[in-house]
Amino acid sequence: MLMKLLAFALYAGVLLAIGYAASKKMHDIRDYFAGGKKLGFINIAFSSRATGESAWLLLGLTGMGYTLGVKAFWVVVGELLGVGIAWIFMAKRFKRLTDKYDSVTVPDFLESRLRDTGHWIRLISCGALLIFVPIYAGTQVFAAGGAFYDFLGWNHYLGAAVGFGIVLLYITQGGFTAVVWSDVFQGSLMVIGLVALPIVGMLEIGGVTNVIGGLRDIDPGLLTVHAGKGWNLMTILSIVGLGMIGLGFLGSPQVFVRFIALKDEKQILPGTIVALTWTLLADGGAVLVGLTGRVLFTKADLGGGEGFAESILPVMSNTLLPAFFSGAFIAMVLSAIMSTIDSLLVLASSAAVRDYWQKTRHPDMPDDTLMALSRKLTIVLALFAFAIGIGILLYNKDEGIFWTIIFGWSGIAATFCPVIVLSLFWSKLTATGAKASMVAGFLSVSIFKFALPPLLVGMGFDKMNDGLAALDVLPPSFAVGMFVAIVVSLLDKKGRARLDGVAEELYNAR
């Protein structure tokens, strides 16, 4: 236990040192929310990937590998597609336009690109983020409590409080720069751990051949891309659902603000290579953890169930590794959790302070006052998210981490992604169309989350057994937002008349 605590203490010390160093580089609101727009590709690639993953990667996706077997690799395919499209086809356009508009936040970009003069896009953005960010961050608090329990045997609530307290200390001082620097450190831990642990597991089992044989003995379906269900409509829908998780990378503001922070567009190509490599290694490694863990610790041995599946990484690290390295895996899981929490809190703070308070209410407020207000609001949002996480621990422990986190992720993505995609590729998108789309996407997530599941159960679908994954929330909400944006924009003749020069701007941003 002492060696585990030592590893965790070293991890926490590095994060606090990063926060202190980053605080020395905070001079204005541009530094606090976008790192001064002067960060390199290594920083941005690692930060965007660490932020885009969260606890679902280390606890949720490893659990899906354990439960679904090879079929879980469809999530990896979806992630690679989403990350690849964002970096290859969207990043350069977005970077060029945000530089042209001198944008610091995603709502800055949308307001300039859509010629919105009423600030409603900012207000809708702010409202959506202030609702979904605490929910998304709260699920990370829930996961942090579970990680401390699985690794150290701590009380869930104590673990959640300790993990969240560390995040709060370094982000309130260092802002976006502290977030990015810490993401590089934490993203490195994540990918190293997810590559190393399945290798250790395979060596323990006796090689790849024994892993394959063990899975075949447990259930031959674990070695098929359809989990042994055969090819039918339900199987196809389930695979589409698993792959569609990549939609969330096509404009989510916590990811795209990192493109704003790049120092120039020359960083995009090497950043693309780093981001895709990281995704392949980390996501593929997470599924392999589940597969090797299924052979090492079958349901018959340890009671099984989805709850156990999502504990397979801590169970494997505690069983196979020396205490200090097992403690390093505590840091790795917390890295996934904290790298998402810190980004979300800074994002929500920027939405409230810059996109609402400064831009719509007090345009002359000095930067030092805004930064002080941002730190205070970050603390308030953190406490709110912590309360939500404790609420999940109290009332909703049984729903898997993957599915709980997907709801918060989908809420942000469905609100912003359709509008971001269209804003970069379709010159006729109007401010009214964007606002209608954002509201429709926002509302659709709740409708598909809470109204659709009873219908799906009646039709014979089950999230884990049939693998609908995000299909019940994100893809249909994304489609609704896209449809509404196009229809309303085409009907909005006055709005299109205000888009003077947009077609030329998009042409030049290719």
What is the CATH third-level topology name?
Sodium/glucose cotransporter
Quaternary state reads single chain
Uncertain spans, ≥5 residues at pLDDT below 50?
299-306, 456-471
> Which CATH-level-2 architecture?
Up-down Bundle
Shape label: globular
Order of helices and strands: HHHHHHHHHHHHHHHHHHHHHHH
Determine the strand fraction and express it as a percent band.
Answer: under 5%
Number of domains: 1
Descriptive notes:
This protein is an all-alpha fold. The chain has a single domain, classed as Sodium/glucose cotransporter (Up-down Bundle). 79% of the residues lie in helices and 0% in strands. It has 23 helices and no strands. The longest helix is centred in the middle third of the chain and has 50 residues, at 156-205.
Question: Would you spell out the secondary-structure blueprint of this structure?
Answer:
Elements: H1 2-23, H2 29-34, H3 41-53, H4 55-68, H5 73-101, H6 106-113, H7 120-152, H8 156-205, H9 208-218, H10 233-243, H11 253-261, H12 268-296, H13 299-302, H14 305-309, H15 312-320, H16 323-361, H17 367-395, H18 401-425, H19 431-450, H20 452-458, H21 474-491, H22 493-497, H23 502-508
Helix pairs in contact: 1-8, 1-16, 3-8, 3-11, 3-12, 3-16, 4-12, 4-16, 4-18, 5-10, 5-12, 7-8, 7-16, 7-17, 7-18, 7-19, 8-12, 8-15, 8-16, 8-17, 9-12, 15-16, 16-17, 18-19, 18-21, 19-21
